[in-house]
Design a protein that fits this description.
The protein is an alpha+beta fold and 99 residues long. It has a two-stranded parallel ribbon. Helix 2 links the parallel strand 1 and strand 2. The termini are far apart.
């Protein structure tokens, strides 16, 4: 009789925050750097959901500016403009290390 194969499940964590980081202190990267470090990856994937701010261009631009020169893959998805998202939302979310 064959034994069922064991599949390792990656441990996932939730680090929830409201505000702070690039949204509140554009000249202080410490909180953003800390969040990136939680992944323990050399090039983490980070996704910004700017819905709480109404998906404003200012918030999206601030996110892009903060993470443009970091060793990470930074993306955003606008829930108010989901039709503009080229990939299914579920796929996009599960590809990320940080949302």
């Amino acid at each position: 009789m064959r034994r069922p194969s064991v599949v390792a499940i990656e441990e996932r964590s939730i680090f929830a925050m409201g505000g702070g980081g690039f949204t509140m202190e554009p000249n202080n990267p410490l909180l953003d750097d800390y969040v990136l470090s939680l992944t323990r990856k050399t090039e983490p994937r980070i996704l910004f959901l700017p819905t709480a701010s109404g998906d404003t261009s200012a918030q999206i631009n601030a996110f892009k500016a903060r993470f443009a020169h970091r060793t990470c893959v930074a993306e955003h998805v606008s829930l108010f403009r989901l039709r503009e998202t080229p990939r299914p939302l579920e796929d996009l979310l599960f590809e990320q290390d940080i949302v």
